[in-house]
Amino acid sequence: MEAIVRRILAGLGAPDLVDQLGERLPPSDLQSLLLAVMRRRAARATAPGLLALAERVRLFRPSPVDARRFHALDGAAFAAAAGFEAVALAPVAPLGLDAVLGRIDPNSVLTALRSAQVIGDPTSSLAIEAARRRRAARTAEPVRLCTSQQTVRLQPLKHPDHTPHFRLFALVTAGRAAASFGFERAALAEHLRVQLDLLRRLGELGYRFDDVEVTVSDTEVVRALRERGLPLPPAIADVEGELAALRDGPAATAVRRLARMATDVVAPLAAEWPAVRFRIDGGRLHAVEYYAGPCLHVTARDRDGAEMLLGDGGLVPWTAALLADDKERFFASGLGLELVAKKFGPA
Predict the structure, then answer these.
(1) I want to staple 331 with a disulfide (CB 3.0 to 4.6 A). Which of 121, 157, 187, 323 is the partner?
(2) Is-above-0.85 flag for pTM?
(3) Does 253 fall in a domain?
(4) Are residues 185 and 308 both part of a single domain?
(5) Mean pLDDT across 175-200
């Protein structure tokens, strides 16, 4: 990317153009300039050219999933999340939101004009709304929000079923820190219950999920094991016993937290959902730098027997950053409805 930019700037004879536009030009002036450029570009467009562009670029194609199927999936998801307020997000978010909160490369989101970007992660937009409500309410009562959103991501696609835009059901819980990791325990349990209840409801509609497994991890535990060069156990039966090497220093708090998740969340859920496998995972590396503590995975085998990641989520420090308050807590999770429709639906 840098080499391409240097070539373009050299061809224009303006080696400092990016600095001028990106740092020295006021945002309102930059917006006016870019709007003028886009207006001129749009004036040159032709109907045949637009059709050719839409046929060539996957980003502009509709989802292959029947919209009626999405309607049914949305209905089941919102019914499963009855304890969460359903919101219809704007299709755009403030420019830089995912880069600041989720540390998503700006090249992976679709940037718009007027200081906006197309939503690349609905949970970050829900974080903005949750922070706004938390600040206005000034109460310890948690804010629970959910949405179903067509989401745009522009990173290279590695799986044939992945597309530049896809439907995602997202849940967030925002609240205050509580004794004995009370917020984290409650949020993890309620998010897992919603995701598992959604799979149950979809099963009644003819969807098939084989070998459903829930794994619960703690990224601070995993990072501590890696830093000390210790093995990363994929399955932990006795958290405090098997992680005794981490029972000193800052990692000790993370071990106690994971132990509480195992006894107070995983064990009751395993009794409530006997057909689902539950596992405490000390070796999860996926998003280990993204989440900041407890996190979850929900997987199942599809119609072809392939294991697919359906649900993901965890604790992130987003509302703490937005409200400049270290006592604020935020738990976010998502489940891929697009993937469910393509790989688990009725034939």
Answers:
(1) 187
(2) yes
(3) yes
(4) yes
(5) 97
Query: Nearest CA to 140 among 180, 172, 173?
Result: 173
DSSP string, 115-178: SEEE-S-HHHHHHHHHHHHHHHH-SSSPEEEEEEEEEE--SPP-STT--SEEEEEEEEEEEE--
Same domain, 118 and 26: no
Give the count of domains, the chain: 2
Per the prediction, the chain carries an average pLDDT of 92
For residue 88, give every residue at least 6 positions away whose Cβ sits within 8 Å of its Cβ, in sequence order, or none: 147
Q: What is the pLDDT of residue 157?
A: 67
* Residue 117, domain extent: 63-343
Percent of the chain at pLDDT > 70 equals 99
Q: Is residue 58 part of a domain?
A: no
Q: What distances in angstroms separate CA 13 from CA 8, 10, 17, 29, 176, one per listed residue? A: 9, 5, 9, 22, 54
Q: In the predicted model, is pLDDT for residue 271 greater than 90?
A: yes
